[in-house]
Specification:
CATH class: Alpha Beta
Bound molecules: guanosine-5'-monophosphate, magnesium ion
Number of helices: 5
CATH topology: Rossmann fold
Largest sheet: 6 strands, mixed
CATH architecture: 3-Layer(aba) Sandwich
Oligomer: single chain
Radius of gyration: 18 Å
Structural class: alpha/beta
């Protein structure tokens, strides 16, 4: 294959992603949910300009999703559930989560957008409707992060209006400090402080969803994007 000019400029692949020092977790004794107390400051090679700390490493995410899968399977039993994942942020999470489940289950997606490209909550817009009927069915809503609580509250209301028999919720991350409406999730991956995080599905202005870990976005990236100079 011919080497393009742009191709020859590509940085070598980061090789230290799995070797970073892990963030400190404290497990809440009453809920069993790991709370991230401080980020690891050693950033995987190549990501130093994007994040200021690591919230969860690929290995920590994997382990936690395995545990969530066991809890879900135990509670679901042999009943069939419709897993409704919220686009786009929960795509990586739901893909890994359902592989930890025996089912039976049906996977569907609903498109909800609440951030108009920035880091502050905006108006809620549905960008894709459900494909399957949820009337009379048990539904598990899967989202990337529970922040103000507005998105999850609206989606639960919509599913109940559509006649879902039961609606449960599972989020990878929970930021209780930012809550504006009273909303909790039935299953939580990690509880985090008021940090704006990216990676493992979570974006900033549609970027960084592909990062294999979850990290705290550097404020400089926000400033650069506003100036139109972000890479
Ligand atoms: P809520 O309606 O609970 O305020 O927000 C939920 C949605 O906001 C999430 O599904 C996610 O798309 C977005 N969001 C909230 N906090 C963060 C964050 O720290 N990072 C990113 N990338 N998105 C967030
Ligand atoms: Mg988002």
């Amino acid at each position: 294959m011919k080497k393009t000019k742009a191709g020859s400029k590509l940085k070598p692949r980061a090789s230290k992603v799995l070797e970073i020092r892990v963030p400190r977790l404290r497990v809440d004794a009453s809920t069993g949910v790991p709370e991230v107390e401080s980020c690891a400051t050693r950033i995987p090679e190549g990501y130093e300009d994007i994040v200021s700390g690591v919230v969860a490493t690929p290995a920590q995410i994997r382990r936690r999703i395995h545990d969530l899968g066991r809890a879900l399977q135990r509670d679901f039993g042999k009943n069939e559930w419709v897993v409704v994942a919220l686009l786009n942020g929960s795509v990586l999470f739901v893909a890994d989560l359902i592989r930890e489940l025996e089912g039976p289950l049906i996977l569907d997606f609903i498109g909800v957008s609440s951030y108009g490209g920035g880091t502050e909550s905006g108006k809620l817009v549905y960008t894709k409707e459900l494909k399957f009927e949820v009337t009379g069915r048990r539904v598990l809503v899967v989202d990337d992060i529970l922040d103000t609580g507005r998105t999850l509250t609206a989606v639960i209301r919509k599913l109940k209006d559509l006649g879902a028999r039961e609606v449960r919720t599972c989020v990878l991350l929970d930021k209780p400090a930012r809550r504006q409406v009273k909303q909790v999730a039935d299953y939580v991956g990690f509880t985090i402080p008021d940090w704006f995080v990216v990676g493992y599905g979570l974006d900033y202005a549609e970027r960084y969803r592909h990062l294999p870990f979850i990290g705290v976005l550097r404020p400089e990236v926000v400033a650069e994007t506003a100036r139109g100079t972000a890479r």
